[in-house]
Amino acid sequence: MSSSHSKKAARCAFTAVAIVFLLPAIAYPQAAAGSPASPADGDWVAYGRTVLGDRHSPLKDIDRTNVARLAVAWRYHTGEMAPKYATHAPTALEVTPLVVGGTMYVSTPLGRVIALDPVTGAERWTFDPNLHRMTHFGDFANRGVSYWKDDTRPAGAVCAERILLAAIDTRLIALDARTGKYCDDFGRGGSVQLKWGLRNIPNREPEYEETSPPAIVNGLVIVGSAVADNGRIDAASGEVRAYDARTGALRWTWDPVPQDSTDPAPGSGLTLTRLGQRTPGR
Questions:
Q1: How many CB atoms lie within 10 A of CB 98?
Q2: Gyration radius of the chain's alpha carbons
Q3: Phi, psi (rounded to 5 degrees) for 4
Q4: Torsion on CA atoms 141, 17, 113, 10, rounded to nearest 10
Q5: Series of mean pLDDT values for 10-residue runs along the chain (282 residues)
């Protein structure tokens, strides 16, 4: 988006059933997305707005002198309070939405991804990963999605811009940012199962889950995990792993827990190499 986006700054409030968008009555034109390192003023392209996680917006139209005059511009209901979305575990709407190039991207507790017009709240597309809602996760939550632009593809090409979702059932999913369809060239038909290749695999589904948006750095999709506590001494390994944002191929993995006496201790100058080999720092 261009700097003209500051003509209509936005503030979002969220509840378990609705997304409420507050706007001053000023024009809000469409524009191209900025880079993840230095996004356009009106964009929020990563969980912390930039890859550095500064969580700062340069927009200035809303301040202490006018914030009391904000009015509700639109509401969007996710619908997940309906009986068809019932779950065994509680749900929690914890999302930080992205705004990229004139589209808002929101994820729900059940991992559904919704693209909205940030001016009107009109729905552009939805994606449902079809989670098994009777699984006893600690709770159903998803804190947001991630955005990546493939600079090797022409603008407007299929999956030239991608939305990456780490679903609670540990699927890493790549979607076309324009349509919400799977990027078929990522992993197997658009997704990677993050349980595959762990040193210790989970012995039950709720033992290992994903609730946070991946970090995107230099074309890599980097994910951590949430591992259930106090279940067994050889619990699922909480490895940090990086996947190719274009293909879904595993690039490296790092286990923070040393496995034998030859492993460097944490803080001893560890460096990461391809596919999880560990070498002392130089």
A1: 25
A2: 20
A3: -65, -15
A4: -110
A5: 37 42 43 59 93 89 94 94 86 93 96 97 97 81 95 95 95 98 97 90 82 94 86 82 96 83 64 44 31
Distance from C-alpha of 108 to C-alpha of 128, rounded to nearest angstrom: 10
Say how many Å lie between the first and final Cα of the chain, rounded.
Answer: 42
Vertex 232: Cα angle to 228 and 237 (nearest 5): 60
How far, CA to CA in Å, does 231 sit from each of 106, 110, 272, 276?
33, 25, 29, 26
Class of the domain covering 82-280? mainly beta
* DSSP code string of 63-81: -TTTGGG-EEEEEEE--TT
d(CA 273, CA 229): 29
Residue 197 makes CB contacts below 8 A (sequence gap 6+) with 250, 253
Give the residue among 202, 260, 251 at the shortest CA–CA distance from 226.
202
Distance CA 30, CA 26 (A): 13
Comparing CA positions, the residue from 266, 213, 264, 206 lying closest to residue 235 is 206
